[in-house]
Amino acid sequence: MTIRRLVLPGPAPTAQDTARLCARLALLYEDGATAVECDAGAVTAPGLAAVEVLARLRLTARRHGGALTVTGVGPAYRALLDLVGLVELLGEPEQREPPGGVQEGVEPDDLAV
User: Fold this and answer.
1) Has residue 72 got a pLDDT over 70?
2) Cβ burial, residue 47 (10 Å; 0-12/13-18/19+)
3) Beta sheet of 35-39, edge-to-edge order
4) What is residue 94's predicted lDDT score, i.e. its pLDDT?
5) Which of 91, 92, 4, 77 is nearest to 40 (CA)?
6) DSSP string, 18-86
7) Disulfide check for 35: which of 59, 67, 83, 93 has CB 3.0–4.6 Å away?
8) What are the residues whose beta carbons fall under 8 Å from the beta carbon of 72, sequence distance 6 or more?
9) For the segment 12-70, what is each residue's pLDDT rounded down to a tens digit?
10) What is the pTM of this model?
11) 49 exposed, middle or buried (CB, 10 Å; 0-12, 13-18, 19+)?
12) How far apart are alpha carbons 90 and 54 in whole angstroms?
């Protein structure tokens, strides 16, 4: 397995960085990488463009059939991803409990609680 590294620019990736980073990621997969480690450690002042960068990188990885691991995510970036409901872009399962009083599955004969 060939693992390569892609570094997000800091302190905040911009919309202009998105196309460049996605093109770089695609080239890494085309050059034989089977997995890429995306280092987000430099992102210390993330905005919505930083969310878009990560979302598009995930789509690019999926399109090329490669694995993408995100490392070095700081608390501000993680909080922003959680706020917009995209913390799963980090590749970690969500740790939330289901809302109280909500059933996950309903059978036709079940009574409402």
Assistant:
1) yes
2) middle
3) 3-7, 35-39, 67-71
4) 46
5) 77
6) HHHHHHHHHHHHHTT-SEEEEE-TT--S--HHHHHHHHHHHHHHHHHT-EEEEE---HHHHHHHHHTT-
7) 67
8) 39, 40, 41, 42
9) 999 899 999 999 999 999 999 999 999 999 999 999 999 999 999 999 999 999 999 99
10) 0.78
11) middle
12) 8
Residue appearing with tokens 């463009």: 49
Nearest to 12 by CA among 54, 51, 46: 46
65 phi and psi angles, rounded to 5 deg: 70, 25
CA distance linking residue 30 with residue 45, whole number of Å: 31
> What six digits make up the tokens of 89?
């872009």
Q: How confident is the model at residue 73 (pLDDT cuts 50, 70, 90)?
A: very high
Q: Tokens standing for 22?
A: 């996605």
Indicate the pLDDT class of residue 88, thresholds 50, 70 and 90.
confident
Contacts of 1 (CB under 8 A, 6+ apart): 34, 35
